[in-house]
Prior knowledge:
The chain has a single domain, classed as Metallo-beta-lactamase, Chain A (4-Layer Sandwich), CATH 3.60.15.10. It is 36% helix and 27% strand. The protein is built from nine helices and 14 strands. Strands 1-2-3-4-5-6 form a six-stranded mixed β-sheet, covered by helices on one side. Strand 2 and strand 3 form a beta hairpin. Helix 8 crosses helix 9. It is globular, with a radius of gyration of 18 Å. The N and C termini lie far apart (40 Å). Bound molecules: zinc ion and fe (iii) ion. The site of zinc ion has 4 residues, from loops.
Amino acid sequence: xxxxxxxxxxxxxxxxxxxxxxxxxxxxxxxxxxxxxxxxxxxxxxxxxxxxxxxxxxxxxxxxxxxxxxxxxxxxxxxxxxxxxxxxxxxxxxxxxxxxxxxxxxxxxxxxxxxxxxxxxxxxxxxxxxxxxxxxxxxxxxxxxxxxxxxxxxxxxxxxxxxxxxxxxxxxxxxxxxxxxxxxxxxxxxxxxxxxxxxxxxxxxxxxxxxxxxxxxxxxxxxxxxxxxxxxxxxxxxxxxxxxxxxxxxxxxxxxxx
Length: 258
Ligand code: ZN
Ligand code: FE
């Protein structure tokens, strides 16, 4: 099984997984880079997985369905180009002979789902759309901070070696914010240097790993004393044990961060 991040638009990735003959893609916002990869590698597209309804994740679905006949699977609670097989948290399916499970992760959008393959060539594989980014998380367009915190908690509980396939290359700007929140986090400083090098070489910083995200991503660390203290100081929050309030203030801080 081979995993490839196909760049699309400014900073999207369409994830392509293939076995040398057959392929699946996740969140094809644009059909062109997918069609190019399929013909370049001589692959037949069997499945299209969609995490949420935004156009930069669905714009190429109809064209790819038409040109390849691939089946489309997507979030039951959102409107994406029909027809498709609607999925919600707990639903299981097979694609490319791999077992997948849908996970409900509301927050960025109301019906956002993530897809987990427990054992795709060694390590678990997570396609999390715009819910979790390396060093960050998605903006709350339709959901509440409480919902997003539960969604991120669910993803953070996955095994350390889970490969985290995010839909955007936002890592460096996320890490700049993360360093402001946690200036003393040495793992974070080292990871930032590593990612700067990758970007200078034109490489994606993704996939990330869940164990790493738990050590560097402030949105998975909002209950640590370091992040709580930093958020409380920045937002002039009273000292509180309300984890949703701290998470909400952290997300707000990031929204305003320049
Ligand atoms: Zn989105
Ligand atoms: Fe997006």
